[in-house]
Design a protein that fits this description.
Protein name: Believed to be involved in assembly of Fe-S clusters
CATH superfamily: IscX-like
Number of strands: 0
Order of helices and strands: HHH
Radius of gyration: 10 Å
Oligomer: single chain
CATH topology: Arc Repressor Mutant, subunit A
Number of domains: 1
Distance between the termini: 24 Å
Shape: globular
Number of helices: 3
CATH architecture: Orthogonal Bundle
Largest sheet: none
GO molecular function, one term: ferrous iron binding
Length: about 70
């Protein structure tokens, strides 16, 4: 399944699988952006994100950890 910036929950799940030992609460947005862009199924424009999208991804990732 191809991932785009709007797929915040699916991205969070993929990040949790790719980085199982990371506490997403402490991930900087610059690192988060790079990790999303590095996901195998990510196909969106890397410049298409913003702070609101990254925050939504981070919040979903935190919820996935719980």
């Amino acid at each position: 399944m191809d991932l785009k910036w709007t797929d915040v929950l699916d991205i969070a799940i993929e990040l949790d699988e790719a980085h199982p030992d990371v506490d997403p609460q402490y991930v900087r947005f610059t690192d988060l952006h790079a990790w999303v862009c590095a996901l195998e199924n990510f196909v969106d424009n890397p410049e298409g994100s913003n702070e609101k999208i990254l925050e939504a991804i981070q919040m979903n990732w935190i919820e996935e950890k719980d």
